[in-house]
Amino acid sequence: MIITIDGPAGAGKSTVARKLAERLGFTYLDTGAMYRAVALAALRAHISPTDEQALANLLSQLRLEWYNGRIFLDGEDVSEQIRQPVITELARRVADSPTVRAFLGHLQRHIAQQTNLVTEGRDQGTKIFPHAECKFFLTASPEVRAWRRWQELQNRGIAITYEEVLRQQHERDQQDAARALAPLQPAADAILVDTSQLPIDAVVELLLAHVRQRLGWPEYPEGIATDRARPPS
Ligand code: DC
Fold first, then answer.
1. Ligand 1 atom closest to the CA of 33, numbered from 1
2. SUPFAM superfamilies this protein is in (predicted)?
């Protein structure tokens, strides 16, 4: 079973998807982390995000794994490193690469074959899992989203002004919307949720209620499904 959560940066997707997955006993997948990990690998290998051939070579040798909410590059946990602003910037350029999108799309579908999934990103309900059982599109006002991102960066000790976060976010929004391959847009059958005024836990409850209703599982016990994902070797 697949539940997709798409939406712009700062809409609360990651926290909501993680908590929803916990409540259902599903695997949580952060596809943005995958694009970030590829960006980190490209940076380390001095590869330009527009060099398709070099990216293809890189991907053919790369071991990219997702386990227990963490992302691993050739066995190394890079979950923290991929949150640096330099990677944020590079990830959005890497996300324009058809080679990278095809590679990661394949990997995401492969993971979905092994486990029940709550997957979040930009294209999960539209391109990767058009037949997902339940789709959500989370959004919030630009100011609220930028404020959340700014707080997150502050907590990580990254010095940046709120205005700069808002400016960068505006750029990313435009780029996400204009992307030729997988532009950010809600799937026709996605449930739209504006999280501007809602605390995270209320959003999780709202989504959970929709999941139960959509699947006709009013009595569905939480945590019934098992996560069969394997640790990276
Ligand atoms: O959600 P995020 O900021 O961690 O995503 C990192 C980048 O990857 C961002 O520029 C959007 C892009 N992305 C994408 O194109 N498709 C996805 N499914 C997930 C993320």
1. 4
2. P-loop containing nucleoside triphosphate hydrolases
> Is any ligand 1 atom within 6 A of the Cβ of residue 129?
no
For the full predicted model, state whether its pTM sits above 0.90: no
- Using the 8-state DSSP alphabet, how is residue 126 labeled? I
Residue 185, C-beta contacts closer than 8 angstroms, at least 6 positions apart: 126, 177
CA distance 91 to 32: 8
Query: Binding residue per annotation — 105?
Result: no
**pLDDT, the chain, mean:** 90
- For residue 152, give Cα distances in angstroms to 39, 43, 83, 109, 213: 21, 23, 10, 30, 33
Is the minimum distance from the CB of 18 to ligand 1 under 6 angstroms?
Answer: no
Helix (H, G, I), strand (E, B) or coil at 137: strand
9-13: average pLDDT:
88
Q: Where do the domains of the chain lie?
A: 2-215
Determine the distance separating the centroid of ligand 1 and the alpha carbon of 221, expressed in angstroms: 32
Would the CB of 6 count as within 6 Å of ligand 1?
no
pLDDT tens digits for 114-158?
A: 999 999 999 999 999 999 999 999 999 999 999 988 998 899 888
Question: Is the dihedral angle over the CA atoms 157, 158, 159, 160 positive or is it negative?
Answer: negative
Domain 2-215 has CATH 3.40.50.300: yes
105 lines ligand 1 (CB under 6 A): no
